[in-house]
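Re: nicotinamide-adenine-dinucleotide structure - here you go.
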Amino acid sequence: MESYEALLASITPSTGQTRTILDPATGQKVGDSPVHGTEDLERAITAASAAQPAWAALGHEARSAALLRAADAIDGSAEALARLLSREQGKPLNGPNARFEVGACSSWLRATATTPLDPEVVVDDGETHAEIHYRPIGIVGAIGPWNWPMMITMWQIAPALRMGNAVVVKPSEYTPLSVLALAAVVNRELPEGLLTVVCGGREVGARLTEHPAIGKIMFTGSTATGKAIIKSSAATVKRLTLELGGNDAGIVLPDADPQAIAEGLFWGAFINTGQTCAALKRLYVHEDIYDAVCDALATVAAATPMGVGLDEANVLGPLQNKQQFDIVARLVDAARDSGARILLGGDPDPGQPGYFYPTTLVADIDNDNPLVAEEQFGPALPIIRYGTVDEAVTMANGLNVGLGASVWSADPAEARKVAARIEAGTVWINSHGGVHPMIPFGGAKESGYGLEFGVEGLKSLGVPQVING
Ligand code: NAD
């Protein structure tokens, strides 16, 4: 097992400009990140162009074997990676957090490396024989956010590499060390130049999205940045997969058992302390069981420990950055001022060193309140009362985003009927937010387009080519 110190040392720059990265839980220094510019981006693209043809020529089997070795390398450095992720991002080691995220990186890489993608025969009628094949795109640009920095990077790079592409990664400026460390471990098994991380700010991301040598952008982040990328990539007609913001609704039907669903509702909303794209961000509960669901949720929430990530007891952490802390505080304060009832939380301790916002539940809140209508991306859940299922579906569909949603009921068949009426890329029944390497994932409306994972995900990292005849 690689040590944390050795891993951190391996990504610490010896020359050039650097930036100090602070732990959001304690304010202490985690490490130094390089500060890259557009000339570093050019170097990465030149190296990628040189490495990609030979990688593509290896074929699926040899590429898969290299990626499986890289998955083993991640497992060999798992604890060091998890500690670094916990310190930089803030998420605890335990619970569905840092160790879980690192574990997902190796399991996703294995699944992506071993999923078959055979040519598809579309017509074979004796006269015509047509097949679809998927050729490599060339160089893929991967731009990611700060909430699940390692896992989302892996979601982007694993299918890109598997399909024979080179990748240039631009991590969030908030969590560069996590992505550098993951790439350093993976790179032990890859040819030089094939996978490079360029740690710049927005200007580097923007240049990547307009660069003529880049064939595709895999982007996960806010809807506003997604729209900017659509514009900046237009001149070179880049392929895009856009996983953008969400504001997922959960609908609890009147027959649900509040005690039985409370734990699932809680983690659906508060996984990664609410900083998750497809987290439950507005909960609609039928009036008959409204109070019982609020009470059951408050009991689970009050018993779930939040604190510094390296403390093994904690399963909720701080917000990753001040900007996100301020968004959550503003939305909860506005909800309180509007007359909504704070069931739990809502009172951050101003003397604390980290960006801790307490687990917050807000009841008796109107559907047009900003805490409901805007993406809070933090540990504050609004709970809205409804009278009829039609009314709940109308409110769930009332926003211009549609990443995920969920329906909670004792009768899964009834829940599936309601699910079919919701405008979202995924609707879960009696759970929220679970992803699987073989189940496609993507958004509806302004939550983006393109699918990740499974066979659909592999196809989106290739250029379809029809061989007719
Ligand atoms: P963000 O859009 O601010 O930043 C994401 C990345 O884009 C960063 O690396 C940033 O440097 C880069 N960037 C910024 N401006 C750019 C530009 N003009 N051109 C190219 N790159 C640019 O998002 P964030 O605050 O880091 O992440 C939080 C958001 O991401 C939330 O809205 C969340 O819902 C969303 N998200 C979505 C998914 C999903 O799968 N749909 C997953 C995680 C997060």
